Amino acid sequence: MNIKKMMEQAQQMQSKLADMQASLEEAEITGSAGGGMVSVTMNGKHKLLRVSIDPSLLSGEEAEVVEDLIVAAHGDAKDKLDQHIAEQMKEMTGGMGLPPGFKMPFGG
Fold first, then answer.
1. Can you give the pLDDT at residue 44?
2. Residue 35 has what pLDDT?
3. What torsion do the CA atoms of 91, 94, 99, 100 make, to the nearest 10 degrees?
4. What is the pTM assigned to this prediction?
5. 22: left (phi over 0), alpha (psi -120 to 50) or beta
6. CB 3.0 to 4.6 Å from 73: which of 9, 40, 100, 105, for a disulfide?
7. How far apart are CA 21 and CA 67, in angstroms?
8. Whole-number Å distance between alpha carbons of 38 and 69
9. d(CA 98, CA 86)
10. What mean pLDDT comes out for the span 38-45?
């Protein structure tokens, strides 16, 4: 493989990475807990955008349960986001043969 071709491929990869980063900022991933009673939505940069809590949890002394469910819903959203990013990377890098565990300069 010659240097010119390698440089062209590197530039293409850089362009694809920039497109993917922009796409991730617009992505919204929702995770839930407690059978959907608590849900959180975050973007592809792991920024928490919204929290939704079923009103039935807000009555009485359920604060600790609600707090635990928010943490669980956030964990669910993060796991889904990590899977989404992995799928995007697999699609983008197709035949590049990046080493297992290779981390790109974004994500959590």
1. 84
2. 93
3. 40
4. 0.57
5. alpha
6. 40
7. 31
8. 6
9. 12
10. 87
DSSP characters over 51-66: EEE-GGGGSSS-HHHH
Residue with tokens 């359920």: 62
Radius of gyration in angstroms for the set of CA atoms belonging to the chain, rounded to a whole number: 19
pLDDT digits (tens, 9 = 90+) for 53-100: 888 888 777 777 888 888 888 889 889 988 988 888 888 777 565 555
Judged by DSSP in three states, 12 sits in helix
pLDDT at 16 over 80: yes
Q: Are 67 and 58 a contacting pair, CB within 8 Å?
A: no
